[in-house]
TrEMBL record:
Name of the protein described by the UniProt record: Sugar ABC transporter substrate-binding protein
Coiled coil location: none
SUPFAM superfamilies reported in the protein's UniProt record: Periplasmic binding protein-like II
Pfam families in UniProt: SBP_bac_1
InterPro entries linked to this entry: Bact_solute-bd_prot1, SBP
Domain of life: Bacteria
Length: 424
Protein backbone atom coordinates (compact mmCIF):
# COMPACT_ATOMS: atom_id res chain seq x y z
CA UNK A 1 0.00 0.00 0.00
CA UNK A 2 1.75 3.20 -1.09
CA UNK A 3 2.17 5.96 1.52
CA UNK A 4 -0.93 8.19 1.65
CA UNK A 5 -2.24 6.40 -1.44
CA UNK A 6 -0.92 9.26 -3.56
CA UNK A 7 0.12 8.59 -7.14
CA UNK A 8 -0.73 4.89 -7.29
CA UNK A 9 2.19 4.17 -9.56
CA UNK A 10 1.93 1.66 -12.34
CA UNK A 11 4.90 -0.65 -12.86
CA UNK A 12 7.10 0.22 -15.80
CA UNK A 13 9.68 -2.54 -15.99
CA UNK A 14 9.41 -6.00 -17.46
CA UNK A 15 9.95 -7.66 -14.08
CA UNK A 16 7.06 -5.87 -12.40
CA UNK A 17 9.08 -3.20 -10.62
CA UNK A 18 8.29 0.51 -10.44
CA UNK A 19 10.97 2.46 -12.28
CA UNK A 20 11.96 5.56 -10.34
CA UNK A 21 13.68 8.20 -12.49
CA UNK A 22 16.33 10.04 -10.50
CA UNK A 23 18.38 13.04 -11.64
CA UNK A 24 21.38 13.57 -9.39
CA UNK A 25 25.17 13.69 -9.32
CA UNK A 26 26.88 10.30 -9.48
CA UNK A 27 29.46 11.27 -6.85
CA UNK A 28 26.66 12.22 -4.42
CA UNK A 29 24.19 9.39 -5.04
CA UNK A 30 26.51 6.51 -5.83
CA UNK A 31 26.01 3.17 -7.61
CA UNK A 32 26.58 1.42 -4.29
CA UNK A 33 23.87 3.48 -2.58
CA UNK A 34 21.46 2.85 -5.44
CA UNK A 35 22.13 -0.91 -5.22
CA UNK A 36 21.59 -0.80 -1.44
CA UNK A 37 18.31 1.10 -1.82
CA UNK A 38 17.07 -1.34 -4.49
CA UNK A 39 17.98 -4.28 -2.23
CA UNK A 40 16.00 -2.72 0.62
CA UNK A 41 13.10 -1.89 -1.76
CA UNK A 42 12.90 -4.86 -4.17
CA UNK A 43 9.78 -3.47 -5.84
CA UNK A 44 11.65 -0.34 -7.04
CA UNK A 45 14.27 0.01 -9.76
CA UNK A 46 16.16 3.30 -10.18
CA UNK A 47 16.76 4.82 -13.57
CA UNK A 48 19.64 7.23 -12.96
CA UNK A 49 20.23 10.39 -15.04
CA UNK A 50 23.26 12.60 -14.42
CA UNK A 51 22.11 16.05 -13.33
CA UNK A 52 21.81 18.42 -16.29
CA UNK A 53 19.98 21.72 -15.98
CA UNK A 54 19.08 21.96 -19.67
CA UNK A 55 17.72 18.42 -19.79
CA UNK A 56 15.81 18.96 -16.54
CA UNK A 57 14.13 22.10 -17.89
CA UNK A 58 13.09 20.21 -21.02
CA UNK A 59 11.66 17.35 -18.95
CA UNK A 60 9.78 19.76 -16.67
CA UNK A 61 8.41 21.67 -19.67
CA UNK A 62 7.16 18.46 -21.29
CA UNK A 63 5.43 17.36 -18.05
CA UNK A 64 7.67 14.27 -17.95
CA UNK A 65 9.94 15.20 -15.03
CA UNK A 66 12.18 12.86 -13.05
CA UNK A 67 10.70 11.57 -9.80
CA UNK A 68 13.56 12.78 -7.62
CA UNK A 69 15.77 15.77 -8.48
CA UNK A 70 18.89 17.43 -7.11
CA UNK A 71 18.33 21.08 -6.20
CA UNK A 72 19.59 23.85 -3.88
CA UNK A 73 17.66 25.26 -0.95
CA UNK A 74 18.97 28.77 -1.73
CA UNK A 75 17.48 29.35 -5.16
CA UNK A 76 14.40 27.15 -4.66
CA UNK A 77 12.00 30.13 -4.52
CA UNK A 78 11.72 30.26 -8.31
CA UNK A 79 10.94 26.55 -8.62
CA UNK A 80 8.37 26.78 -5.85
CA UNK A 81 6.70 29.93 -7.21
CA UNK A 82 6.28 28.15 -10.53
CA UNK A 83 4.54 25.25 -8.80
CA UNK A 84 7.18 22.74 -9.93
CA UNK A 85 7.83 20.99 -6.61
CA UNK A 86 5.69 18.75 -4.39
CA UNK A 87 4.78 19.89 -0.89
CA UNK A 88 6.48 17.45 1.49
CA UNK A 89 4.65 18.17 4.76
CA UNK A 90 2.18 15.32 4.18
CA UNK A 91 5.12 12.92 4.07
CA UNK A 92 7.14 14.52 6.88
CA UNK A 93 4.11 14.37 9.19
CA UNK A 94 3.82 10.58 8.74
CA UNK A 95 7.46 9.56 8.50
CA UNK A 96 9.10 7.65 11.35
CA UNK A 97 12.65 8.56 10.23
CA UNK A 98 12.37 12.02 8.69
CA UNK A 99 10.18 14.64 10.37
CA UNK A 100 10.10 18.40 10.86
CA UNK A 101 11.46 18.26 14.41
CA UNK A 102 14.63 16.53 13.18
CA UNK A 103 15.48 19.18 10.57
CA UNK A 104 18.10 21.88 11.11
CA UNK A 105 16.99 25.44 10.18
CA UNK A 106 19.01 25.31 6.92
CA UNK A 107 16.05 23.36 5.52
CA UNK A 108 13.86 26.46 5.98
CA UNK A 109 15.26 27.83 2.71
CA UNK A 110 13.28 25.02 1.04
CA UNK A 111 10.06 26.32 2.64
CA UNK A 112 7.66 28.51 0.69
CA UNK A 113 4.53 30.29 1.92
CA UNK A 114 3.39 31.50 -1.49
CA UNK A 115 5.35 34.76 -1.31
CA UNK A 116 8.75 34.07 0.19
CA UNK A 117 11.06 31.39 1.57
CA UNK A 118 11.56 30.60 5.26
CA UNK A 119 8.04 29.69 6.31
CA UNK A 120 5.17 27.60 5.02
CA UNK A 121 5.39 24.03 3.71
CA UNK A 122 8.64 22.26 2.83
CA UNK A 123 9.23 21.71 -0.88
CA UNK A 124 12.63 20.02 -0.61
CA UNK A 125 15.21 18.82 1.90
CA UNK A 126 18.92 19.56 2.28
CA UNK A 127 21.34 16.59 2.13
CA UNK A 128 24.26 18.47 3.69
CA UNK A 129 25.53 22.04 3.71
CA UNK A 130 28.23 24.45 4.78
CA UNK A 131 28.48 28.02 6.01
CA UNK A 132 30.40 28.95 2.90
CA UNK A 133 32.02 32.22 4.00
CA UNK A 134 34.25 30.62 6.64
CA UNK A 135 38.00 30.86 6.11
CA UNK A 136 40.63 28.13 5.77
CA UNK A 137 44.25 29.09 6.17
CA UNK A 138 47.78 27.66 6.28
CA UNK A 139 49.61 28.52 9.51
CA UNK A 140 53.01 27.86 7.92
CA UNK A 141 52.49 30.70 5.41
CA UNK A 142 51.47 33.04 8.22
CA UNK A 143 54.62 32.08 10.11
CA UNK A 144 56.82 32.70 7.07
CA UNK A 145 55.28 36.15 6.67
CA UNK A 146 55.63 36.81 10.44
CA UNK A 147 51.88 37.39 10.78
CA UNK A 148 49.73 36.19 13.66
CA UNK A 149 47.33 33.43 12.53
CA UNK A 150 43.61 34.19 12.31
CA UNK A 151 41.48 33.61 15.38
CA UNK A 152 39.51 30.39 15.27
CA UNK A 153 36.87 31.85 17.59
CA UNK A 154 36.44 35.55 16.75
CA UNK A 155 35.53 36.80 13.25
CA UNK A 156 37.89 39.16 11.45
CA UNK A 157 36.53 42.21 9.61
CA UNK A 158 36.62 42.18 5.81
CA UNK A 159 38.83 45.28 5.83
CA UNK A 160 41.37 43.60 8.14
CA UNK A 161 41.20 40.45 6.05
CA UNK A 162 42.15 42.34 2.88
CA UNK A 163 45.08 44.01 4.63
CA UNK A 164 46.35 40.64 5.89
CA UNK A 165 45.82 39.20 2.40
CA UNK A 166 48.10 41.91 0.98
CA UNK A 167 50.85 41.08 3.50
CA UNK A 168 50.63 37.37 2.74
CA UNK A 169 50.82 37.85 -1.04
CA UNK A 170 54.22 37.22 -2.65
CA UNK A 171 55.06 38.36 -6.17
CA UNK A 172 58.24 37.86 -8.20
CA UNK A 173 59.05 38.88 -11.77
CA UNK A 174 55.51 40.10 -12.36
CA UNK A 175 54.05 36.74 -11.30
CA UNK A 176 52.21 35.82 -8.12
CA UNK A 177 54.08 33.18 -6.14
CA UNK A 178 51.65 33.12 -3.20
CA UNK A 179 48.10 34.50 -3.15
CA UNK A 180 47.19 35.98 0.21
CA UNK A 181 43.45 35.36 -0.10
CA UNK A 182 41.14 33.39 -2.40
CA UNK A 183 37.40 34.07 -2.66
CA UNK A 184 36.38 31.32 -5.12
CA UNK A 185 35.47 34.19 -7.47
CA UNK A 186 34.50 31.82 -10.29
CA UNK A 187 31.92 30.04 -8.13
CA UNK A 188 29.77 32.74 -6.58
CA UNK A 189 29.65 36.51 -6.31
CA UNK A 190 25.98 37.01 -5.45
CA UNK A 191 26.01 35.13 -2.14
CA UNK A 192 29.09 36.71 -0.51
CA UNK A 193 28.08 40.20 -1.67
CA UNK A 194 24.57 39.63 -0.30
CA UNK A 195 26.05 38.51 3.01
CA UNK A 196 28.15 41.69 3.20
CA UNK A 197 25.06 43.83 2.60
CA UNK A 198 23.01 41.99 5.25
CA UNK A 199 25.87 42.24 7.76
CA UNK A 200 25.63 46.03 7.45
CA UNK A 201 21.89 45.98 8.06
CA UNK A 202 21.07 46.54 4.38
CA UNK A 203 18.64 44.76 2.07
CA UNK A 204 19.27 42.96 -1.22
CA UNK A 205 15.65 43.08 -2.43
CA UNK A 206 12.59 45.24 -1.88
CA UNK A 207 10.01 43.80 0.53
CA UNK A 208 8.04 42.23 -2.34
CA UNK A 209 11.24 40.76 -3.88
CA UNK A 210 10.58 42.47 -7.22
CA UNK A 211 13.48 44.97 -7.20
CA UNK A 212 17.06 45.38 -6.05
CA UNK A 213 19.13 48.49 -5.35
CA UNK A 214 22.89 48.10 -5.62
CA UNK A 215 23.43 51.85 -5.13
CA UNK A 216 22.73 51.85 -1.38
CA UNK A 217 25.68 52.67 0.93
CA UNK A 218 25.78 49.02 2.07
CA UNK A 219 25.80 47.64 -1.48
CA UNK A 220 28.43 50.12 -2.66
CA UNK A 221 30.70 49.30 0.27
CA UNK A 222 30.50 45.59 -0.61
CA UNK A 223 31.14 46.22 -4.31
CA UNK A 224 34.05 48.54 -3.50
CA UNK A 225 35.62 45.87 -1.29
CA UNK A 226 35.57 43.44 -4.21
CA UNK A 227 37.07 46.05 -6.52
CA UNK A 228 39.80 46.83 -3.97
CA UNK A 229 40.50 43.11 -3.57
CA UNK A 230 40.94 42.68 -7.32
CA UNK A 231 43.08 45.79 -7.73
CA UNK A 232 45.36 44.63 -4.90
CA UNK A 233 46.07 41.38 -6.76
CA UNK A 234 45.87 39.28 -3.62
CA UNK A 235 43.71 36.52 -5.08
CA UNK A 236 42.31 35.01 -8.28
CA UNK A 237 39.57 36.90 -10.17
CA UNK A 238 38.11 36.48 -13.63
CA UNK A 239 40.93 38.79 -14.81
CA UNK A 240 43.49 36.51 -13.14
CA UNK A 241 41.70 33.16 -12.81
CA UNK A 242 42.86 30.22 -10.73
CA UNK A 243 44.39 27.48 -12.94
CA UNK A 244 41.40 25.13 -12.64
CA UNK A 245 38.81 27.72 -11.64
CA UNK A 246 39.07 26.82 -7.95
CA UNK A 247 41.37 27.59 -5.02
CA UNK A 248 42.16 24.03 -3.94
CA UNK A 249 45.21 23.23 -6.07
CA UNK A 250 46.82 26.55 -5.11
CA UNK A 251 46.01 26.02 -1.43
CA UNK A 252 47.45 22.49 -1.40
CA UNK A 253 50.59 23.70 -3.18
CA UNK A 254 51.13 26.33 -0.44
CA UNK A 255 50.52 29.01 -3.06
CA UNK A 256 47.48 30.41 -1.26
CA UNK A 257 47.46 31.42 2.40
CA UNK A 258 43.70 31.85 3.00
CA UNK A 259 40.70 30.58 1.04
CA UNK A 260 37.03 31.38 1.70
CA UNK A 261 35.27 28.02 1.71
CA UNK A 262 32.77 26.21 3.87
CA UNK A 263 33.13 23.36 6.36
CA UNK A 264 33.02 20.85 3.46
CA UNK A 265 36.53 21.94 2.43
CA UNK A 266 37.98 19.88 5.27
CA UNK A 267 37.09 16.69 3.44
CA UNK A 268 39.89 17.49 0.99
CA UNK A 269 42.64 17.15 3.58
CA UNK A 270 42.06 13.75 5.22
CA UNK A 271 44.40 11.96 2.80
CA UNK A 272 46.92 14.80 2.46
CA UNK A 273 50.41 14.93 3.98
CA UNK A 274 51.02 15.68 7.65
CA UNK A 275 52.56 18.97 6.53
CA UNK A 276 49.16 20.04 5.21
CA UNK A 277 47.07 18.49 8.00
CA UNK A 278 49.21 19.96 10.77
CA UNK A 279 49.13 23.50 9.38
CA UNK A 280 45.54 24.06 8.25
CA UNK A 281 42.86 25.69 10.37
CA UNK A 282 39.36 27.08 9.90
CA UNK A 283 38.24 30.52 11.07
CA UNK A 284 34.75 32.07 11.35
CA UNK A 285 33.20 33.98 8.45
CA UNK A 286 34.46 37.58 8.25
CA UNK A 287 32.14 40.50 8.94
CA UNK A 288 31.37 43.80 7.22
CA UNK A 289 29.35 45.92 9.59
CA UNK A 290 27.89 45.08 12.99
CA UNK A 291 25.69 42.06 12.29
CA UNK A 292 27.40 38.67 12.32
CA UNK A 293 25.83 36.45 9.67
CA UNK A 294 27.30 33.24 8.26
CA UNK A 295 24.98 31.71 5.63
CA UNK A 296 25.08 28.76 3.30
CA UNK A 297 25.37 29.78 -0.34
CA UNK A 298 23.36 26.81 -1.66
CA UNK A 299 22.39 23.94 0.66
CA UNK A 300 22.16 21.21 -1.97
CA UNK A 301 19.45 18.65 -1.51
CA UNK A 302 16.51 17.20 -3.40
CA UNK A 303 12.88 17.77 -4.27
CA UNK A 304 10.09 15.73 -5.83
CA UNK A 305 8.62 17.44 -8.91
CA UNK A 306 4.92 18.30 -8.74
CA UNK A 307 4.20 16.16 -11.81
CA UNK A 308 6.38 13.21 -10.81
CA UNK A 309 4.65 9.90 -11.54
CA UNK A 310 5.96 8.01 -8.51
CA UNK A 311 5.90 10.36 -5.53
CA UNK A 312 5.53 7.72 -2.82
CA UNK A 313 8.49 5.75 -4.13
CA UNK A 314 10.46 9.01 -4.45
CA UNK A 315 9.70 9.71 -0.78
CA UNK A 316 11.13 6.30 0.14
CA UNK A 317 14.34 7.33 -1.62
CA UNK A 318 14.19 10.71 0.19
CA UNK A 319 14.01 8.91 3.55
CA UNK A 320 16.88 6.59 2.63
CA UNK A 321 19.11 9.33 1.18
CA UNK A 322 18.41 12.05 3.77
CA UNK A 323 18.09 9.95 6.96
CA UNK A 324 19.49 6.50 6.15
CA UNK A 325 23.02 5.15 5.72
CA UNK A 326 24.06 7.63 2.98
CA UNK A 327 23.32 10.55 5.32
CA UNK A 328 25.29 8.96 8.17
CA UNK A 329 28.24 8.27 5.88
CA UNK A 330 28.16 11.90 4.69
CA UNK A 331 28.05 13.19 8.26
CA UNK A 332 31.08 11.09 9.26
CA UNK A 333 33.06 12.04 6.14
CA UNK A 334 33.53 15.75 6.90
CA UNK A 335 32.38 16.74 3.41
CA UNK A 336 29.45 18.76 4.78
CA UNK A 337 27.41 19.62 7.84
CA UNK A 338 24.48 17.21 8.27
CA UNK A 339 21.00 18.65 7.77
CA UNK A 340 19.59 16.63 10.69
CA UNK A 341 20.09 17.69 14.31
CA UNK A 342 20.77 14.14 15.47
CA UNK A 343 23.75 13.74 13.14
CA UNK A 344 25.80 16.78 14.21
CA UNK A 345 27.66 14.63 16.73
CA UNK A 346 28.75 12.30 13.89
CA UNK A 347 30.97 15.00 12.34
CA UNK A 348 34.61 13.77 12.40
CA UNK A 349 36.95 14.71 15.24
CA UNK A 350 39.66 12.07 14.90
CA UNK A 351 42.45 14.21 13.43
CA UNK A 352 43.78 17.30 15.25
CA UNK A 353 42.60 19.68 12.52
CA UNK A 354 39.17 18.05 12.57
CA UNK A 355 38.86 18.70 16.32
CA UNK A 356 39.63 22.39 15.81
CA UNK A 357 37.28 22.63 12.83
CA UNK A 358 34.49 20.88 14.74
CA UNK A 359 34.71 23.38 17.61
CA UNK A 360 34.82 26.39 15.29
CA UNK A 361 31.95 25.03 13.22
CA UNK A 362 29.70 24.28 16.21
CA UNK A 363 30.07 27.90 17.38
CA UNK A 364 29.42 29.17 13.84
CA UNK A 365 26.03 27.45 13.66
CA UNK A 366 24.53 30.22 15.81
CA UNK A 367 25.01 32.70 12.93
CA UNK A 368 23.55 30.60 10.10
CA UNK A 369 20.95 33.02 8.74
CA UNK A 370 19.25 32.70 5.37
CA UNK A 371 20.25 34.54 2.23
CA UNK A 372 17.42 36.35 0.41
CA UNK A 373 15.87 34.48 -2.50
CA UNK A 374 13.54 36.10 -5.02
CA UNK A 375 11.16 33.87 -7.02
CA UNK A 376 11.61 36.19 -9.99
CA UNK A 377 15.28 35.47 -10.67
CA UNK A 378 17.50 32.41 -10.70
CA UNK A 379 19.79 33.40 -7.82
CA UNK A 380 23.55 33.34 -8.36
CA UNK A 381 23.15 31.84 -11.85
CA UNK A 382 21.46 35.03 -13.03
CA UNK A 383 23.28 37.50 -10.81
CA UNK A 384 26.90 36.39 -11.26
CA UNK A 385 27.42 37.26 -14.96
CA UNK A 386 25.99 40.74 -14.32
CA UNK A 387 28.05 41.30 -11.18
CA UNK A 388 31.25 40.04 -12.82
CA UNK A 389 30.79 42.20 -15.92
CA UNK A 390 30.34 45.45 -14.04
CA UNK A 391 32.88 44.69 -11.31
CA UNK A 392 35.48 44.16 -14.04
CA UNK A 393 34.65 47.53 -15.57
CA UNK A 394 35.21 49.18 -12.19
CA UNK A 395 38.40 47.20 -11.58
CA UNK A 396 39.74 48.43 -14.94
CA UNK A 397 38.75 52.02 -13.99
CA UNK A 398 36.35 52.21 -16.93
CA UNK A 399 33.54 53.24 -14.55
CA UNK A 400 33.24 54.26 -10.91
CA UNK A 401 31.94 51.80 -8.31
CA UNK A 402 28.82 53.98 -8.12
CA UNK A 403 28.25 53.66 -11.86
CA UNK A 404 28.82 49.91 -11.67
CA UNK A 405 26.24 49.69 -8.87
CA UNK A 406 23.72 51.59 -10.97
CA UNK A 407 24.34 49.38 -14.02
CA UNK A 408 23.96 46.21 -11.92
CA UNK A 409 20.73 47.58 -10.46
CA UNK A 410 19.28 48.33 -13.90
CA UNK A 411 20.18 44.94 -15.39
CA UNK A 412 19.01 42.85 -12.44
CA UNK A 413 15.75 44.80 -12.20
CA UNK A 414 15.06 44.02 -15.87
CA UNK A 415 15.60 40.32 -15.14
CA UNK A 416 13.36 40.53 -12.08
CA UNK A 417 10.62 42.17 -14.13
CA UNK A 418 10.91 39.48 -16.81
CA UNK A 419 10.63 36.81 -14.13
CA UNK A 420 7.60 38.49 -12.60
CA UNK A 421 5.94 38.71 -16.00
CA UNK A 422 6.54 34.98 -16.54
CA UNK A 423 5.19 33.89 -13.16
CA UNK A 424 2.45 36.52 -12.94
Amino acid sequence: MPLLGACNASTESGDGKTVLTVMYMANELTKEQIADFEAKNPDIKIRFIAHDGTRLNAMLASNEPPDFVRGPAVGSARTNAQGLATELDQYLDKSSVLNKESLLPVNDSFRWDGKQIGSGPYYGLVKDWSQDATLWYNRALFKEAKIEPLSTTEPISYDELLEIGKKLTKKSGGKTQVYGLGLEWAWNLYAPLSMMILQQGGEVYSSDLTETDMTTPQALRALKWYVDFAKAGVGPTSLDPAPDGADLSLFLAKRMAITQDGYWYGGNFVEESDEIKNNIAMAPAPVMGDKRISPTYAGWGAYIPAKAKHKDEAWKLMEYFMAGKPSEDRAKSGWGIPALKSQLEMMPQELPYQKQVYQTQQAELEYAEQLPDSPYIGGATAWDPVLNKHLLRAIKNEVTVEAAGKAITDEINKLLQQGKDQIG
